[in-house]
Amino acid sequence: MGNKRLFFLLLGMIVFIVLMALTMGSRRGFTWPEKFVKDTVATTQGWMYRPAAAIAGFFQDLRDLQIIYRENKELKKTLMHYAEDTQRLNDLEAENKRLQKMLEFTERQKQADNYKYHIANVVAASTDAYNRTISIDLGEMDGIKKDMAVVTDAGLLGRIQNVFPFHSDVQLLNNLNDTDNKTKAISVTVRGKESSSFGVIETYERDRASGSDYLVMTKVEHDPTQGIEVGDTVVTSGLGQVFPKGIMVGKVVSIGVGEFGITPRILVEPFASFTQIQEVFVVEVPELR
Prior knowledge:
Belongs to the MreC family. InterPro entries: Cell/Rod_1, Cell/Rod_MreC_2, MreC, MreC_beta-barrel_core. Involved in formation and maintenance of cell shape. This protein folds into two domains: 80 residues; 173 residues, Rod shape-determining protein MreC, domain 2 (Thrombin, subunit H, Beta Barrel). Strand 6 and strand 7 form a beta hairpin. The strands form two sheets. Strands 1-2-5-4-3-12 form a six-stranded antiparallel beta barrel. Strands 6-7-8-11-10-9 form a six-stranded antiparallel β-barrel. By secondary structure, it is an alpha+beta fold. It starts with a helix and ends in a 5-residue tail after the last strand.
């Protein structure tokens, strides 16, 4: 009996649904209660949709901001690495140019003399205006000795002042003005177009207007009217037994009257720069070993 009742109940519901479908399909419109219900539902859905869409958009914006933040962070890292690589490349190119010049310098020197050149890196520089020195990474263990000449690819820079087992101090040419001038005097030769003149460089002076350093050459054996001209090249003569012969020193920039008006006073512009020094050569003369 129970199964029969359930069967008739399901059959009745099916018939009811079919009749409702036939009735709705035969009608051309909706009744006013149906219209009221549909409008109410649509209005309510509209009210609920806008806040829900706004909330959903807000969370979507947050997700987009997180993505943009991560992308911006990655871009910053990439830009930082690019800047580091660019700086590294610039440093390598500058080092390559310096080494190329030094190689050309050593090749030229092989043809001019039989000196041995020890390449050294500058590891420190003194900031004392009255004690201009630099420190290099060669010392006694590398065969470096006191008073050896120190040069760059441009010209004479100074001499070895103090030697330690693994490094040495170099006195620069623009540090000649102290109480020990005798050991630092540079015997030089002025190579003129027609003749050569000998002299001694013992001091330097600075042009306050330009800030340039000039070596002062005195005790010149010839009068400037007999061959020395502005622009002539000054090299070491080797007579002072400290600096070997033939090392480029600088060029003549002015010729004046010396003490007592007897010999000329010549200003020499050094070829070597005394600032931003990175690599140097220590000159070893085989005959003096």
